[in-house]
Amino acid sequence: MTISPDDDFAAAEYALGTLDASERATLAARRLREPELDEAIRSWEARLAPLAEAAPEIEPPRDLWPAIEARIRGASPDAPGNGTIVELERSIRRWRAMAIAASVLAGVLAIGFVARETTRRSAPHEYVAILQKDAASPAFAVTVNLDKQELTVRPVAAQAPPGKSYELWIIDAKLGAPRSLGVIGDTPRGASLSAYDPAVVAGATYAVTVEPPGGSPDGKPSGTPVFVGKLIPVSP
């Protein structure tokens, strides 16, 4: 057995707290003996209750609702047209329930959109890469902040061969040839990444080569990288 549309709308109003005290008491008593009605109320509560407080109060036009209530109070059960008035009241209640439900649904969609956009914007902003050779001890630590478009490289356990320098490179197919990020000394040093697309920065390979003192003389790596690493996200 399924409940009628009127009972379903009443269940929606019950879940939203828009029924008057007597209507709510009547429906509360009915749900105790009518499993289908109780299930409908629980279903509406699950869908709408979390946003019921945020939904704006929606009422029919000010000049319509008081007039209808006055006519209902003043009409006898057998008065001509009373059935029409009662039906109109039901229609107004039905309209009110649907309007409130529509408002809550709009709220759900809006929250979903905001959540989706927030998730989309919350991509990681800070990364770190450990540059090393095979499974050897870490040689350099590279940290990247995409918001500031800055890179910092710190020596960990690497010392350049006598008369040579280490140089850091960013490598990605979209960049073509490797691009130098500067010579690495014995202390941490920074480099600007403003010239690179953040997506390229996040997905690139970072490598260190052995170069003549002061770095590569022609802007190209002098040999194959001796230390290599990829960035991994460390914070949103």
Keywords:
single chain, 236 residues, alpha+beta, Immunoglobulin-like, 4-stranded antiparallel sheet, 6 helices, 9 strands, 21% strand
Describe, in plain words, how this protein is organized in 3D.
By secondary structure, the chain is an alpha+beta fold. The chain folds into two domains: 5-121, no CATH class; 126-235, Immunoglobulin-like (Sandwich), CATH 2.60.40. It is built from six helices and nine strands; from the N terminus they run H-H-H-H-H-E-E-E-E-E-E-H-E-E-E. The chain has helices at 5-16, 21-33, 35-52, 65-74, 82-121, 198-203, and strands at residues 126-131, 140-145, 150-155, 165-171, 179-184, 189-192, 205-211, 227-230, 232-235. A hairpin with an 8-residue loop joins strand 1 and strand 2. It is rod-shaped, with a radius of gyration of 35 Å. The chain starts with a helix and ends with a strand. 20% of the residues are buried.
Level of helix content? Answer: 40-55%
Structural class: alpha+beta
Please give the alpha-carbon distance between the first and last residues: 52 Å
> What does the radius of gyration come to?
35 Å
* Mean pLDDT over all positions: 78
Domain module tally? 2
Major pleated sheet: 5 strands, antiparallel
Summarize the helix and strand pattern as letters: HHHHHEEEEEEHEEE
In the predicted model, the low-confidence regions spanning at least 5 consecutive residues are 52-56
Helix segment count? Answer: 6
